[in-house]
């Protein structure tokens, strides 16, 4: 997972992130509070992953990008941040889409079972429209802002009992998807 994160975020997207041992993208938010959802093949090879961070602890939006939130950063035990959605390019477009949908489905199931009612994220502003088209109840937290040459924004997704149905209607949610065995809190 950390090797694929390095290949995607550092090598391909050219983000200025810390790299360990020249091959692992691991940042200050990877730690005991993080929860990882990881999709893998039958050999255990990484296909895709995402990280969830509790907003009640240090997280990217609150620590690095609070200015993206017009009315303050949403914080609470029931609010978690989505970060590091990693879909390796080697999977091709169709493979990346299938893995993304499984990860989103697992994330929704996990969030609802864990009492998480809201998710936040920092994204390229143009991606926000794509997120909205997926069927989420999604609200921008402020106006887009140019940071480091990129037009960024933050959003909040509200989760409820109908979230899976709205996502299924757009082909995103895969019924009966549960977090893969490697979905876990960091040790």
From TrEMBL:
Keyword Cytoplasm: no
Top EC class for this record: transferase
Reaction(s) catalysed (UniProt annotation): a fatty acyl-[ACP] + S-adenosyl-L-methionine = an N-acyl-L-homoserine lactone + S-methyl-5'-thioadenosine + holo-[ACP] + H(+)
SUPFAM superfamilies in UniProt: Acyl-CoA N-acyltransferases (Nat) (SSF55729)
Keyword Transferase: yes
Keyword entries, A-Z: Autoinducer synthesis, Quorum sensing, S-adenosyl-L-methionine, Transferase
Domain of life of the organism encoding this protein: Bacteria
Pfam family membership, one: Autoind_synth
UniProt EC number: 2.3.1.184
Protein family according to the UniProt entry: Belongs to the autoinducer synthase family.
Record protein name field: Acyl-homoserine-lactone synthase
Organism: Sphingobium phenoxybenzoativorans
């Amino acid at each position: 997972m950390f090797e694929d994160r390095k290949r995607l975020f550092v090598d391909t997207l050219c983000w200025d992130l810390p790299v360990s041992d020249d091959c692992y993208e691991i940042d200050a938010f990877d730690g005991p509070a993080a929860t990882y959802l990881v999709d893998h093949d039958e050999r255990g090879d990484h296909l895709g992953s995402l990280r969830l961070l509790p907003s009640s602890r240090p997280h990217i939006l609150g620590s690095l990008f609070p200015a993206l939130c017009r009315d303050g950063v949403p914080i609470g035990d029931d609010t978690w941040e989505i970060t590091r959605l990693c879909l390796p390019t080697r999977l091709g477009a169709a493979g990346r889409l299938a893995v993304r949908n499984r990860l989103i489905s697992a994330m929704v199931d996990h969030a609802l079972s864990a009492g998480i009612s809201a998710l936040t994220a920092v994204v390229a502003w143009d991606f926000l429209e794509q997120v909205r088209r997926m069927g989420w109840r999604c609200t921008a937290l402020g106006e887009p802002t140019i940071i480091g040459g990129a037009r960024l924004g933050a959003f909040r997704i509200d989760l409820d009992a109908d979230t899976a149905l709205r996502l299924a209607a757009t082909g995103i949610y895969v019924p009966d998807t549960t977090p893969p065995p490697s979905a876990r809190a960091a040790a």
